[in-house]
Amino acid sequence: MVRKRKVKKKRNKYVGKYPVNARITIDYSKKKPKVKFEYPRKDSFSQIFYSLPVIFPGMMFGCIILLLVSINISNNNHTIEYPELDDCIVYKIFIKNTTSLIGAGLECTINDKVYIMDTELDRGNNFLFFKYPPKLDVKKVDVVELEPFFNIIIIALASLFGAWIMYKFYTKTKSGQKIFPELNKAIFNARYYTKFDKVPVNKQIEIPLFRNIYLDYKATKGFSKNLLRMEICEHPFAEIVRKGKGIKNIIKKTKKQVYLWKATFYFKDVPKDGQLEMWWT
After folding, report:
1. Which domain holds residue 255?
2. Which member of 135, 227, 235, 253 lies 3.0 to 4.6 Å from 241 by CB, making a disulfide possible if both were Cys?
3. In this structure, is residue 259 part of a structural domain?
4. Which of 112, 108, 105, 118 minimizes the C-alpha distance to 83?
5. Of 198, 244, 247, 202, which Cα lies nearest the Cα of 223?
6. pLDDT tens readout for residues 70-89
7. For the chain, how many structural domains are there in total?
8. Other CB atoms within 10 Å distance of the CB of residue 73
9. pTM value?
10. Residue 151: exposed, middle, or buried by beta-carbon count in 10 A (0-12, 13-18, 19+)?
């Protein structure tokens, strides 16, 4: 006897044009669900560009660029070959006696860096004769520190460039459009859960307030059969952008808010069995 293995159906995934808070309508009245996205505000650039998934990688990129530039400048400043005695701000000579020769070393300080040049001297001469070219050995090298203002410029420009790359990735690629909501879900770690086993007389179940970062639900039995539509929309509140002076001019300018949302489930009949589970942030 051969049994047919049950194959789990893959859940359809729908991605909007922009990875920002959007009105979402899922219509279950027909055989195949129909998904619609709408955006209450047109400033999708600012909503994405000034978010943590963009700013944080951009700043990390800026710090990495600053570190690489500092290392490069430091390495370039270390390559000084055979300094002349006239260039030495301070120099000291050390002499050690050997069987036939006198070993000597010259310690030379240039720009707060100390170098040691090993030489050989002839014992028979009445003066010190340095063997040319001297052997250069770095004894002490100070860490190169960039000017604070220069640091700020490098970090700012590199961070903006890194943030722009992340913005393009999140908005122009399918992978980025999927990753951006998942990152926001992980950053805002608040999780909420509820379960309904009854539907009110008006045949509606509602989450009255949430941030529209994450919503998942599971309807079973009668709840699944009678589910007509699910809608996510913003509350009709206005966000105050600028305040004036005086009681009469408190509100100068307002715009649509995109932070306070609600989700509503509509049913064609009151289910007799099953349940509706929801998870959201």
Report:
1. 189-281
2. 253
3. yes
4. 108
5. 198
6. 766 555 544 445 555 555 64
7. 2
8. 13
9. 0.63
10. middle
